[in-house]
Amino acid sequence: MSDNQQAITEDQWHQAKAIWDYHQMHHQAHPVDVAIGLGSHDLGVATRAAELYHAGLFPTLVFTGGNSPTTAKVFPRGEAVHFREHAIDLDVPASAILLEPHAANTGQNITLAREVLADAGITPKKVLLVSKPYMERRSYATARKLWPEAEMVCASETLEFDDYLKSIGDEKLVVDMLVGDLQRVIEYPKLGFAIEQEVPEDVHAAYESLIHAGFTSRLIAS
């Protein structure tokens, strides 16, 4: 951790862990028609998608995502392009991968990936969403709103919270992201972007406490 990165207190760790656990849907992965790897800063999405492909859970994989301010320097050719290359390096056949290189948010990830599948003549009934660990619930809620006729199953890298903190190397940033995603889970249904998700009282209390403590860099204006 560099000098300009803020360590979190033990209480804040427990609050963030409660939100981390809530964000994960704890679905049991099972065979589906297609998987969609949601673009982000986290190449672990492509790693997990490759693992599940090799486990025989789906024949077709879509990587979706253009660029954001967070990912432009890391993935200069776009998130989906780099994810595809990483999956091919992990022995996923190029012929099994479809590419959607334009999406700029989760709603576009779902909508544009669905269009790419339709163009390929694929109309899936069961879809596996592969995302960052703390993005499972938001991607699920978004997909259920935009694609209600398909069964949605979520998956992500099987990392413990401490291991994820270490992998990113910036505790403050990770907690900011956890808080920001929870805000979207709460607020987006009101805007028509996602289905409603119940937030347990302890998770909501942790969220409010972390906002009060200044973990706000990923919040949207509401």
Automatic annotation (TrEMBL):
Concerning InterPro entries, the annotation shows: Cell_Envelope_Assoc, DUF218, Rossmann-like_a/b/a_fold
Pfam families found in the cross-reference section: DUF218
Source organism's superkingdom? Bacteria
Tell me which Gene3D superfamilies the record gives.
HUPs
What stretch or stretches form a coiled coil here? Answer: none
Q: Tell me where in this chain the DUF218 domain is found.
A: 36-149
The name under which this protein is listed is: Uncharacterized SAM-binding protein YdcF
Q: Which organism is it from?
A: Streptomyces globisporus
